[in-house]
Specification:
elongated; SBP_2_dom; signal; 341 residues; single chain; binds beta-D-fucofuranose; alpha/beta; 6-stranded mixed sheet
Amino acid sequence: MRCRRAFCKRASALLLSVLLGITGCGMELQPESLEDPYAHKEEGLTVVGVSQVGSESVWRTANTASIQRVFTQENGYFLIFDNARQKQENQIKALRSFISQQVDYIVFSPIEEEGWDTVLQEAKDAGIPVILMDRNVKVADESLYTTRVGSDFTREGADAGQWLADYLQEQGRQQETINIAILAGTEGATSTIGRSEGFLSVAQEHENWNILEQADAEFTTAKGREEMERMLNTYGDIDVVVSQNDDMAFGAVEAISEAGLTTGTEGDVIVISFDAVRKALEMVEKGIINVDIECNPEQGGLVERVIQKLERGEAVEKAYYVQEKVFTPENVGDYIDSRSY
Ligand code: GYE
């Protein structure tokens, strides 16, 4: 019975994926695989539908890779992966297709917090557990999702603020007016909300910190560069840039240097970034970025452990956090070589 059910699930999963134009990154769905798709497949795989936000950043690519490494057929899974290309409506469509395919689990990284009640109710009604990865949802009924695996973004933002407070103190600049420009990520995303809240909570304690603007730069390099350029033209003096991810920081550093200014430990503008991907860590080592607050994208393993617990009928927590560090020129050297993304 279990085998027949698994076969049906996978058959309908494949067909619907092809019909809906969903390409499986974990498993590329080639048209020819329709000829005899299951002849060589093991039975009894756990079917997992993953809806990813997009591919806006290096972090996101690493997050996707982490999922694809874990949810393989060798490990007992059939992965249906959908890239929503930064659109909530695409995520809702993907979730609905997972529901109609009767997947065993839905894993998804919600682009923004609001707007999920209806589709998550549909998943609940279909008896499909939903695991949030990376970002959170704001729903009236918290039982609409099983658990969330991700980062504590408010803590990350507070770490950034605390680092700045300590740094300014070391430099004897604690009385000076410090003009701060914030490059914010996607509006309404948990990572944007948390990093802002955490940083602003520390900023509030420092009367000399002057937040010039919080500009929406969507977590991309192109937007980071564009918004940085605009803010440099708008404000005469910017002492600190807080970039809510590395990709925006790359764009910001370019814009600052094009304006004839320098960044980092010896520079005109202090740069604080988040994510800590390899290229950014190298910039920390060179003193171009002052500090990088790590956000750990390696969440696939933790998501799988949650699924295994659920498979065994065990209770799970409502949230699981990944471990993260703060990188400065002093400690970054020990970590760069082992960074794979
Ligand atoms: O910082 C950014 C990505 O939500 C933690 O999204 C994630 C953020 C990450 O695009 O690079």
